[in-house]
Design a protein that fits this description.
The two termini are about 20 Å apart. The chain is an alpha/beta fold and about 550 residues long. It has 18 helices and 17 strands. The chain has a seven-stranded parallel β-sheet. It has a five-stranded antiparallel β-sheet with strand order 11-12-13-17-15. A three-stranded antiparallel β-sheet has the order 4-6-5, with no helix packed on it. Helices cover about 30% and strands about 10% of the residues.
Length: about 550
């Protein structure tokens, strides 16, 4: 557990941060939806696990057009999830347990139910109310065509027409209109939001779509044409910083302004960018005078290959060092297939197509997937920098790929015409007990159905059970806290092909066997192994060992 009196401003540099998706963590009132009281009641689980901080995904008022990322009020709590007093109680309990609190900030867009957007819809074209967003007349003889060819991340045009004939921009769902960050009122309002939560004890912020705020709104707006509409691939086809709406150079002015807000507190508030950009560009967001840290998604996206993982690890450490930041590592989150399943997909498999098949094409070996996930976790936790865990991975939860289509909640399913199943499979509520209508998630049912296999994954089933995934995480995090030193590693030059082998500060060695055969176990005291070592001289396949 973290030191309760710690005011170390660098606590985040090698922290372990646990992501809580509030609607799926714990339900205190029995309505089937997780809530803040439920989170507060289960915080001892995080303290016992040994993490340094919890990151709360959005808990703001929302109609859930995008899982809570369509925010109707950035300075309030969704009544279904609780009240501002419930939030205060949660922060107080977290701090009592020695846990820092990080919250999501969603600055690229609001909900269409936000008072500002409702005012904009009632206002005339060209009005100050509409200038807070991106409204434009359409093309064509009667304005019947979208202003540009920009595409939504969720599919289709990024423009939606209003009854008076103008169009508004939504890079995500139509219920998520993009804000105009050229508007000073927008900038001032978010400074107020950052202070609002900081004043209530929040220790840091995760910035959603950090690379999307600044846009080239000079007239005439330009099409993206052949460079592609979404994703990092489109950024690689244009000069850095020049895409019409992703990763523009002007966005860094916004974060330098935010840093002044963060640094006005003692200790300074921390921040981490969700920026889907190439590594060299990602370093800009992590500079000390901006957000300070940025997610490294290359690690998550890399397959089970020693050579590829080594390249990504080496690259991320260099990128973070260049920015004066620490590296970040993540294997699962609320947007991707859980790594206990994903790491078993053959190279080249489209996770979206696999989900559409209900997890049957190809079928995967869940036991082998858990074995590989445990090895990947010990590898990640040994790396210099911060590790971000996603709720339930400490239980070894697989992706629930076979959710019936009639229960899906993710808007991607409808917005893509049933082409992409979406992210519900990693958002299924957690199992706390082995029995009950929702395995202890709440006194009633759950907003997404849980498979029967969750009974054996439950916290109750694993706590105190030698060899369980939960106990592996607890032991690893306890050891990690004792072993941490420095922010560098040294690769072992004589490591066999298919093996990752490095040392931290000459005292802590991590070896991962990514081959299909046992390899010789290096000398040293075995501190922890992701799977049992049945042969004292061999490291089994898909296994990570820590040596002292």
């Amino acid at each position: 557990m973290a030191d309760l009196s710690s005011r170390n401003p660098d606590w985040w540099r090698q922290a372990v941060v646990y992501q809580v998706y509030p609607r799926s963590f714990a339900d205190a009132d029995g309505d089937g939806l997780g809530d803040l009281k439920g989170v507060a009641q289960r915080l001892n689980h995080l303290a016992t696990l040994g993490v340094d901080a919890l990151w709360l995904s959005p808990f703001y008022p929302s109609e859930l057009a995008d899982g809570g990322y369509d925010v109707a009020d950035h300075r309030s709590v969704d009544p279904r999830l609780g009240t501002i007093d419930d939030f205060a109680a949660l922060v107080a309990e977290a701090h009592r347990l020695g846990l820092k609190v990080v919250v999501d900030i969603v600055p690229n867009h609001t909900s269409h139910l936000h008072p500002w957007f409702q005012e904009a819809l009632r206002a005339a074209p060209g009005s100050p109310a509409r200038d807070r967003y991106v409204f434009r007349p359409g093309r064509g003889a009667h304005g019947e065509l979208p202003p540009t060819d920009w595409q939504s991340v969720f599919g289709g045009s990024a423009w939606r027409r209003t009854p008076d004939g103008e169009w508004y921009l939504h890079l995500f769902a139509p219920e998520q209109p993009d804000l105009n960050w050229d508007n000073e009122e927008v900038r001032a309002d978010f400074r107020t939001t950052l202070r609002f939560w900081s004043d209530r004890g929040v220790d840091g912020f995760r910035i959603d779509v950090a690379h999307g705020l600044a846009k080239d709104l000079t007239e005439p707006l330009r099409d993206v044409g052949g460079i592609g509409a979404t994703g990092e691939e489109s950024l690689l086809r244009v000069p850095p910083g020049s895409h019409p709406y992703w990763d523009r150079d002007e966005v860094h002015e916004i974060y330098r302004d935010w840093r002044k807000v963060f640094d006005a507190y003692s200790p300074p508030r921390t921040a981490v960018a969700e920026a889907w950009v190439p590594g060299a560009r990602r370093a800009l967001y992590a500079r000390p005078d901006e957000l300070g840290q940025a997610f490294n998604f290359e690690f998550l996206e890399t397959g089970w290959s020693a050579e590829e993982l080594r390249q990504v690890i080496t690259g991320e450490l260099a990128t973070a060092h260049a920015a004066g930041a620490s590296a970040t590592w993540v294997l699962s989150n609320h947007d991707v297939v859980r790594h206990a399943s994903r790491l078993m997909l053959p190279p080249g498999t489209d996770p979206g197509a696999w989900l559409l098949s209900g997890g049957n094409a190809p079928a995967i070996d869940t036991a082998a997937g858990l074995r590989r996930a445990r090895a990947a976790t010990l590898l990640m936790l040994a790396l210099p920098g911060s590790s971000y865990l996603y709720q339930g991975e400490e239980l070894g939860l697989p992706e629930v790929a076979d959710l019936p289509t009639e229960v899906l909640q993710d808007p991607i399913w409808e917005q893509t015409g049933h082409v992409r199943k979406g992210r519900d499979g990693c958002r299924v509520p957690l199992p706390w007990t082995s029995t009950g209508p929702s395995y202890g998630f709440g006194p009633g049912g759950a907003w997404l159905p849980q498979p029967a296999s969750f009974a054996s994954h439950a916290v109750e089933a694993q706590a105190g059970t030698e060899g369980s995934t939960l106990e592996l995480y607890r032991t690893a995090l306890r050891l990690r806290r004792k072993l941490l030193a420095g922010e560098t590693l040294t690769w072992t030059p004589e490591a066999p092909a298919g093996v990752l082998d490095f040392t931290r500060c000459e005292a802590w060695r991590c070896v991962t066997n990514l081959t299909g055969e046992p390899v010789p176990l290096p000398p040293g005291e075995v501190l922890l192994s992701s799977t049992p070592l049945t042969d004292a001289g061999a490291l089994p396949p898909d296994t990570t060992v820590w040596l002292g």
